[in-house]
Structures are given as C-alpha cells and as structure tokens.
Specification:
single chain; alpha+beta; Porin; 8 strands; globular
Amino acid sequence: MKLTRFITTISFLMITYLANSQASTEEYTSPYKKAIGFKLNPGAISYRSFYTRNKAVEGIGFISIDGFQLTILNEKYFPFANAENLTWYIGYGGHFNLWSEKYKLNNPSKTAGVAVGVDGILGFDYKLKNTPINLSVDIQPAFNFVGGSYFDLGWGGIGIRYTIK
C-alpha cells in the first residue's frame, strides 16, 4: 500500500514537472501580480506572487494547537479559452511541519516532532472582475519522507485573497 501511494505521488510530481517545463501555446498574463489571504482548509495564511506571466510561487503557513506547517509551491497557470480571469494550475513544492506534543499523543503513528515532504497541487483560480479579490479551489496531495512516511490528501481547499496589481 505504501509503495502504491509513493508511486502515485511520484507520478503526480512528474506530470506537474512536465506541465511546468512546457512552453504555453498561448500568451497568458495573470490579471494580478501578488495576492495575500486565507486558505480555508486547514485555515492557513496564503501568499502568492507571480514571477513570470504565468508562473507563481505560493507560500502557505498554518499554525494551530497541533503545530506549525510551512508549504512552498511553484505553480504554472493555464487559461480557459472563453472564460476571462479563470485559469487552472498545477504545481509542486515541499512542506515542513513541527508537531506539538498533543498532536503526537492523539496520532501515535506520527511520533516524530518534525515532518518534511513533497507536495503537488492542482486547482482552479478566479480573479473577480472590478474587485481586488481572488478565489481558488485546489487539491494538494503530499508525501512525507521525514518524520514518518505517509501519503496525505487532507490538504488543499478554498482560497480567498486580496490581490495587488
């Protein structure tokens, strides 16, 4: 079972890498340059910054009584033909977790206080017209390789951000 999850994660990351390395057939420019806000699952702060016309880096920080997680993702955006300000995106990155003692007691399989792993991301992004608001929804599978080896589909969610042109 662990091998299947590992192969699934590696396959997702390889597809993500290939999508990011291919040149876009269309000239696409994001309708915003930077955005800061919240990601509602698990309730994290999100900051996104475009470093080219269609590529962005996103930082996601999560703090709770269970601990702390920082995730950094590299994302590539693709437009939909007849939908202004709507894109889909795919990307990859990594995460670093510090678990609290309470979390470790409630999750005996995660005995280490530190976890490190790789993440993929696949989602949709929409910039509201005439307002500085951006909405997104995504799935973010992750594979931990330090602090316990396990596959996790529990990340991702809905993002609401304030955009800066």
